[in-house]
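Quick one: structure tokens for this chain, please?
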Amino acid sequence: MRFSPEQKLRLAVTNIINPFNLGTIVGEAGIEVAANSHTPYGPGIDGWAKLSGTNLTQDMTDQFLRHFLIPSITHTDRTTTAGPTSASRTAFGIVSIRSSGSGTTMAATPSNYSQIAAPVFDIGISNLYVPGLETRFSADAERYAVGLATAPIDNFITEFVPSIASHIHTHVVFVQRVINQVAANPP
């Protein structure tokens, strides 16, 4: 099924306001501030609140670009066909089949347009308001490369973890956020 731009926007908003997503953002910020009180956000509840707000803003930017704006401009929707082989291809970015605006299917770039273009804009926008972030081109390029390299992990989680989680009664959002945080802040 092809999504209209309105449905894509609704998906992005739903992903943002998902209680597990919001809980993960707040929990992740709490852990980071507790582990390092010398962050640019400062220690304590003030630092935790500031970091939570920054993480929420980054998540909103990513959801807007990745699930609404870029797919609406390129007239593409990510689709998967049943079966572990095609799901594995999609998850690992080998082949992604996309539905074009005209209703035909086409092979997309190695992962999908959103996963290639959205991080470029995410990094540029984050450079404007995230304190303590290195804004050199080499630091931006490293964040972009790490994001592309870890995209198959995010795809894997999106494709397979929901069915696994339904059997062990856990939620995927927490796992995704932890992996995204590790990818965004390499050692």
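Residues 143 and 185 are 8 Å apart (CA to CA).
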